[in-house]
Structure formats: C-alpha cells, structure tokens
Design brief:
The protein has 407 residues and is mainly beta. It has strands at 29-34, 50-51, 57-61, 73-77, 83-88, 102-104, 110-114, 128-132, 138-143, 158-159, 165-169, 181-185, 191-196, 204-206, 211-212, 218-224, 237-241, 247-252, 266-267, 273-277, 287-291, 297-302, 315-317, 323-326, 338-342, 352-357, 375-376, 382-386, 398-402.
C-alpha cells in the first residue's frame, strides 16, 4: 500500500549538537567497513547495528552473499573494522533478503526476519524468522505461510520479557484486507497472531519495530490506514496491542499533524512515545512527534526544506532525553539528507540541531539510510550503515562511526 521509493533514504555521517542553527561536523567520522559486493555482502538496506558487550557489531545486508542467490548476509565487525561473514542466505526454505536488521534476544542469540524465501504461496516466498548465534549458526524458526499467518515480515523484531519475540508482517492476516499482522513467537518457533489489521480506521501495513511498556503492552505504527485526509491509502496510525492481544488505535494521523510514520519509535518510563512522520506536517515534509498514553500528539519539530525533510528512519534515544534521527532529503550540498538531534530534554522538545549534511566531502554521497540505522553506545558514539555511497564508502554500502555526540 506504500511504494518502495517512499521507504528509501540517503545517508551521511554526523556529530550532534543542539540549537536552532545548521552547523558543521567537528567530531571524527570513520568508515569501519566498505562492503565489496559478492560474497562480502551488499546494499544493507533498512538494517541496524547491534553491539555486544565485547564491542563486536552485528548487522545484515539485503544483497550479496551466496554466489547463486545473492540473498544477503549476516555480518560481524570489530571496532577496528575487521569483518566476518557469519552467514550467507541461500534462498528457498532458508529465507532471502533480510530487512529490518537484528535484535539481541535474552538468550544471547540474534534474531531477524527475511522478507522473502521460506516457501508458501507468495511469489518469492512469504518470509521467515531466523535465529543466529554470535558464532554464525543459523536456524529458521518460522516460515510464513501467507494468508492468515501473515507474509513479508519487514520490521526488526522486538525481544520482550521471558525471551518472547514480537514482530509484524507487512501483508497477510485479515482475509479481505491482507493488511498485515502483529505476532509473537518463542525462540522455539511457537507463533501466535496477536492482531490482524483490517485497514481503514484500524490501520494497515505496519513497518516500524515494536516497543514495549512496563506492563508488557506493545506499540507500533502503520504507514497506511487511519484517516483518509491524506490519500485513499490513509495517513497512518499509532497503535497499541495489549499483552493479551487486544488492539486499539492510539492516534490516527490527519496529515496536518504528520503522515506515513515509517521508522522506529522509543518509549519513556511514563509511556510517552516518540517517533517521526515521514510526510505531512506544516509543509508536508514530516515531523518529530510525541504521543502521550491517552493518544494526544504533540509535534516537537516540523521539518522544512532548509533543515532536512522526509525522516523515514524514525528516532533513537541516547537514554538522556535526547532523540536522534535522519532525514531522507535536505541539506545544502546535494539534497541528500541530514542527521538531526531534538532537544536536550525530548519530552519538552527544546532545541533542534543539525551537525552534518549528506554529500560533504567527508561523508557518503546519495546514500540510502536504513530504518533505525543509528546506534548510540554508552560512550556517546554513533554507528550507522549506508546502503549505498560513493565518497568514503562504496557502491555496495558501508558501516560508519562518529565520535562522541555533542562534542
């Protein structure tokens, strides 16, 4: 219900400061690894970085890998940039094209989804859920069957309490709508559908990773459905799925308050949700928002052409009240986008800053930014992935880091 082009973005490197002016990067930008295509992997679209305590970094690419399939890989990187290909997807029952990135389970293993492969009635397979150990042993724990079981799991999984995993599918579910599902699954593969989206006011096409509150309730966004004031597909919604599976729409976007929320959200201790709408808002260029537990939406920042626009990747928190994210477009060099920070205290929305612009000589040019690409470690360093780049990157993408944020 939403075109692939609206999910793509461009990438750059950034250090983050606060204030209302556009400033230049001051901290060191470093490419940790340039993907070489082929067996090394290629085009890490919509991936993220997962960091283990020993500093090893893990992620996926959606292309490259097996010489015949070119269906993507799971990789590990050291902080020095040394890469190990842990697994190459083979297609078929094995799965293919892992989007959404990885999630670390409570058992210490990594979990992810593939959008294709696995069998079923879908043209290229309905997708899989897989487990992979830090050493690279991969196991498919569920193959989607399409129909009411769901198909095309697109977003990163969420590891909840007691080792249970939660996720969404972009399609399948309701027999009439085929608008996607919310599911839970154990590491052993026992799967339960918590909700099948019905379209219209109920929402459709969930793309964001789920987040969980202290009571075990799940929250996410749909990129379509809800109010029809934007277009016939709908403006999108923020929804809640209770621990027992009951669903309610927390907020339906109207267009003037944002539309098409695609990326990751974060939740605070009071149950407030923070995210980004890819479009809509004052200039139809997107915004950063807060949704209270009663569904009230507050806009923390409206994007303009001058400070970046179309934020498809959502937001990431540094754990200190600041939100970080990216825009697909904008910036003064090549309209390739920016990385932004919102507020020293995000709940108050005070302050918006940009500290790096896509297309500068030190950063990748015309790169796609995966959903939830940024990872902030305990030292305040940021890590991200460019799915495609030229300068300081490669045509197949790269992994980068930036020094301590706000320095």
């Amino acid at each position: 219900m939403i075109s692939m082009s609206s999910r793509r973005a461009y990438l750059a490197a950034v250090t983050l400061t606060f204030g209302l002016s556009l400033v230049s990067s001051a901290s060191a930008f470093r490419v940790l690894h340039k993907f070489a295509g082929g067996g090394d992997g290629a085009y890490p679209q919509f991936s993220n970085i997962v960091e283990f305590r020993n500093g090893d970094l893990y992620g996926v690419t959606s292309g490259g890998g097996d010489a015949t399939c070119q269906c993507g890989i799971v990789f590990k990187l050291t902080h020095a940039g040394d890469e190990t290909v842990l697994y190459r997807f083979m297609g078929g029952n094995d799965g293919a094209v892992p989007y959404g990135g990885l999630e670390k389970g409570t058992d210490g293993n990594l979990y992810g989804v593939t959008t294709q492969g696995g069998g079923g009635p879908c043209m290229n397979g309905c997708g899989t859920v897989f487990q992979i150990t830090p050493e690279g042993i991969e196991t498919v724990i569920h193959r989607f069957a399409g129909g009411t079981d769901g198909s095309v799991p697109y977003a990163r999984l969420h590891a909840g309490k007691h080792g249970i995993l939660y996720g969404t599918t972009l399609s399948g579910g309701d027999a009439t709508c085929q608008c996607g599902t919310v599911f839970r699954i154990t590491p052993g593969g026992a799967k339960t559908i918590l909700h099948s989206f019905a379209g219209a006011t109920d929402g459709a096409s969930p793309q964001s990773p789920l987040v969980e509150d202290q009571n075990g309730n799940l929250f996410g966004s749909t990129s379509a459905g809800g109010a029809s004031t934007c277009n016939s597909a709908g403006c999108g919604t923020i929804y809640e799925v209770a621990a027992n599976g009951g669903e309610r729409v927390l907020h339906a976007f109207q267009g003037n308050d944002g539309s098409d929320p695609l990326g990751a959200m974060v939740i605070d201790a009071d149950g407030n949700l923070y995210g980004a709408a890819n479009q809509g808002g004052e200039q139809a260029l997107g915004n950063v928002f807060k949704v209270a537990s009663d569904g009230t939406l507050s806009v923390l920042h409206y994007f303009t052409n001058g400070d970046g626009y179309f934020p498809s990747g959502g937001v990431t928190s540094d754990g200190k009240g600041r939100l970080y994210g990216t825009t697909d477009r904008g910036g003064s060099i090549c309209d390739c986008g920016i990385i932004f920070a919102v507020g020293e205290n995000a709940s108050q929305g005070n302050g918006y800053g940009v500290d790096y612009v896509f297309g500068t000589p030190r950063g990748p040019v015309r790169s796609w930014l995966p959903d939830n690409a940024l990872h902030v470690d305990k030292r305040g360093h940021v890590y991200g992935i460019a799915a495609y780049g030229v300068r300081n990157c490669s045509q197949y993408g790269c992994v980068f880091s930036v020094g301590a944020l706000g320095t």
